[in-house]
Amino acid sequence: MKRVVITGQGTINALGHDVATTLDAMRAGRSGIGPLEFRDVERLSIRVGAQVRDYRPEDHFNRQQLGLYDRFTQFAMIAARQALTSSGIAFDEELAREAGVVIGTAGGGLLTQDENYRAVYEAGKNRVHPLVVPRLMNNAAASHISMSWGLQGPCYSVATACASSNHAMGQAFQLVRSGASRVMLAGGAESMLCFGGIKAWEGLRVMSKDACRPFSADRNGMVQGEGAAVFVFEEYEHARARGAEILAEILGFSMSSDASDIVMPSRKGAAAAMSGALRDARLAPEDIGYINAHGTGTAANDRTECAAIMDVFGDNAGKLMISSTKSMHGHLIGGTGAVELLACIMALREGVIAPTVGYREADPDCPLDVVPNAAREARVNAVLSNAFAFGGLNAVLALGRS
Amino acid sequence: MTVSVRDRVLDIIAQQAVLEVSDIDPEMPLQDLGLDSLGLVEAVFALEEAFDIEIPFNANEPENSSFDISSVNAVIKAVETLVAARTA
Description:
The complex is a heterodimer of chains A (402) and B (88). Helices cover 36% and strands 19% of the residues of chain A.
């Protein structure tokens, strides 16, 4: 089995249009959540979200590309470009043949769907743009990354709702670890902040009308975000041979299915994924210093997640730091695990633990150190990143310091 | 013949709980009727559609919502209030 390291990272999300700005916001505990701005927002009861602001697509893409790229693809392309630049990797013919892309997304080109349904149903138009299908398909982002950099190895998208990008990154990790590929681009992208996207979520009645306050007793639901993060996963010897800067090592990955309820999370399923990741990484519970929680800010998730952490970590649960950065960048659904991996890498590399902001009141059902409101300096050697999706699908990554 | 708000609410709750109206004791808490969290959200939606009202219900903490769901009777009363407010 090969060792797998991360040698590049890129992002665009509500906290910033690149990694440095995003990490600055996390260090400062600054939230990107604010009033949503899009057509018909006044017909929604939920009007807050973590939108990518001051974004002009034409600064990044030409007209031909914009005809083909839904907003989620644009975000994925921007993040991929940054990740490749920061890794300094170059693809010769042989490497390009095996290098691949796995991108998690739940909604795919949901904005394209929303706009075109509006055109045919509301405006009564009988014609849509000829490229609607290649814009909206879930694999569009992965395919455009593959095409832009000529990566011809395994390339696909993963859709497991809120766990999509953790499943995507886990699979990319396994492809490199097994020797199937030496380099994979992996991450997630999501953009469903539009009238139809939020209207559907309103129906579930799990959305907050003001803020995302994970683990706080007065929390009242989740807040959606948008954006992408993409990483370069590279086989260790390959990275070392070319003198690449190693940001972190991926030590393990585990997936589990609750096999119980389509929306309610399960303590047992979450615990199985966390302990599976520890086993896969050959780590003991006491090796983990920080967990980037799924932490959606719903009562059901936060209580179940804390109980599962206590099941897995026992007496060590009290020594762990756990934070939910969704309180700042919102819940990016299929892209969330990727943006959250940035916080994990920051913890390992810089010894800075991103906080859970908006925290006001202790919840007896969440008696853990949730790093409330202010970032903290702490040296950690290994971390977990949790993702637990609707449908009962869990995916947990274990990372270590390079 | 007009059907009362009470009867329509009972009908909707019975349907969601897969029960006969005659099996419902209005003093019963909703969870005792076998309505889980998803069933509750669906019942709230059905009530909103039936009466053209907005029900302030948050599935995160159903017991702390301003919409009283402590019993079937409480729901009937809450819906009656919302319907009266809409027609006022």
